[in-house]
Design a protein that fits this description.
Blueprint (H helix, E strand, L loop, with lengths): L9 H12 L2 H13 L3 H29 L3 H8 L5 H32 L3 H6 L1 H10 L2 H19 L1 H29 L4 H9 L8 H15 L5 H6 L8 H31 L3 H4 L10 H5 L5 H35 L3 H21 L14 H28 L3 H7 L9 H24 L1
Helix pairs in contact: 1-9, 1-13, 1-16, 2-11, 2-13, 2-16, 3-4, 3-11, 3-13, 3-19, 3-20, 4-5, 5-8, 5-16, 5-17, 5-18, 8-9, 8-16, 8-17, 9-13, 9-16, 10-13, 16-17, 18-20
Length: 445
């Protein structure tokens, strides 16, 4: 069997796992959802879900990985042979997401390159036109996607400690420092404090069911729950480490980066637009179409834009690494092959699908389902259907079939006290399955 490495220590695990959770979900998705769903009230809902629902699912997945010492396929098979199919469903999530995520990572690299080389003003002059022209071209999106995938693949070749952990140790602190600097800069601009107030003050008149559903969906996307990532990384964690403390620290890292990204993006949009509903509600296009225009209104706009997209690239890279590791570990265990061979297989697969995703904007633009192009279809199926199904099944398996004792014994291994045990049991058995079923039903409708 291929040799299984461990993280060097608890901090290495935390930084790598936080790096896995910190990605486009935090820096791209979280700010536009916060802007769209009322700022402070969305923030409050999200924080409440993180400490209940997010904690429960994350510690369950990490405990499953550490107790079995296996990646996602082996872990579920060891827990219950009849329920091992959950492992295959879970493996499908990163396999579907990684290729189109890499395409978006390529877009980020392209924008960063343009700002670094002084092209920010050109983008800002017609941000929507530039984005459409770039994504609808053939060569450029494929080139940048290939570069992003190859960078990720090279890091993966070095393994757990020398590749994943070492990269996270460098990128995570740099990412946080850059975000803090940019956030302070944007808040101090005229109009920035208005954006800060909108972002932090919970206006209960803006509370809505849609905001709750959006926050739940963001929770899974941001914390990479249901991806098989936490199970795989948990299998690399030494038995002596305190699981409960580790999960709390990861949540603080991940949520902190999301909050910092919001502190940068929302005040920046206020500075540019004066807080217009149209700008705040611009949705996914906020990063690629609204923010370039925002940055060019600042002194040294190209430098600010370059730093921002470098931040986003770092975040995208750490998340891509974790999604890579799930199928890499699964192939190594299933077929007893070396890491380089497994990484090569995943790289080729990712490259092929990423090219198809890029062509979905031009050559294959006739492939449309209910208004969705290829990227949108993959995103909807993986995030809105497959991911909630995996999490619900995991909760049912641990909560009702094999019983929570499997996870609780692992958390308390080594004499550790499980302080949130009562909350954990309630959320795992009742709240999580019902809440996620609501998300799934809403998404399908």
């Amino acid at each position: 069997m291929a040799e299984r490495h461990l993280f060097s220590n608890r901090m290495g695990f935390i930084l790598a796992t936080a790096g896995a959770a910190v990605g486009l979900g935090n820096i791209w998705r979280f700010p536009y959802l916060a802007a769209e769903y009322g700022g402070g009230i969305f923030l409050l809902i999200y924080l409440l879900l993180v400490v209940t629902l997010g904690f429960t699912i994350m510690i369950t997945e990490i405990a499953i990985g550490r107790s079995t010492g296996s990646g996602v396929l082996g872990a579920f098979a060891k827990i219950s042979r009849k329920w091992r199919f959950i492992g295959y469903l879970s493996l499908m999530v990163p396999c579907i997401i990684l290729p189109y995520y890499s395409v978006i990572g390529g877009w980020v690299m392209k924008y960063g390159f343009e700002f670094i080389t002084g092209g920010g003003a050109f983008i800002a002059s017609d941000a929507t036109g530039f984005f459409n022209a770039f994504t609808q071209s053939i060569a450029s999106p494929i080139f940048w996607s290939v570069v992003f995938i190859l960078i990720t693949g090279v890091i993966m070749m070095f393994g757990v400690q020398k590749g994943i952990e070492r990269t996270a140790r460098v990128l995570m602190p740099v990412l946080i420092l850059m975000l803090i600097g940019l956030a302070i800069y944007c808040i101090c601009m005229p109009g920035g404090l208005d954006g800060l107030w909108y972002y932090l003050y919970p206006d209960f008149s803006k509370f809505s069911f849609d905001a709750v559903v959006a926050a739940m969906g963001q929770l899974f996307y941001s914390l990479t729950l249901g991806f098989g990532v936490m199970i795989t990384y948990g299998s690399y964690l030494a038995k002596k480490e305190n699981l409960e403390k580790s999960v709390h620290t990861i949540e603080i890292f991940d949520t902190g980066v999301a909050l910092l990204a919001g502190l940068l993006v929302v005040p920046a949009v206020f500075v540019f637009s004066g807080g217009s509903p149209e700008a705040l509600g611009s949705g996914p296009g906020l990063m690629f179409m609204a923010l370039p225009q925002v940055f060019e209104t600042f002194p040294g706009g190209d430098i600010v834009g370059a730093l921002f997209f470098i931040c986003v690239f770092f975040a995208a890279l750490t998340s891509a690494i974790c999604m890579y590791e799930v199928p890499v570990a699964a192939i190594m265990e299933k077929f007893n092959v070396s890491r380089p061979i497994s990484v090569g297989i995943v790289t080729v697969f990712t490259l092929l699908v990423a090219v198809i995703v890029c062509l979905g904007y031009n050559v294959l633009d006739f492939i449309v389902l209910n208004g969705y192009n290829i990227l949108d279809m993959l995103d909807f199926f993986s995030n809105s259907i497959l991911l909630p199904v995996v999490v619900i099944l995991t909760c049912l398996l641990v909560g009702w079939i094999v019983k929570p004792k499997v996870v609780i014994d692992e958390i308390e291994d080594g004499g550790h006290t499980f302080k949130m045990k009562k909350i954990y049991l309630f959320v795992l058995k009742y709240f999580a399955p019902l809440a996620i079923a609501v998300i799934l039903l809403t998404n399908l409708l």
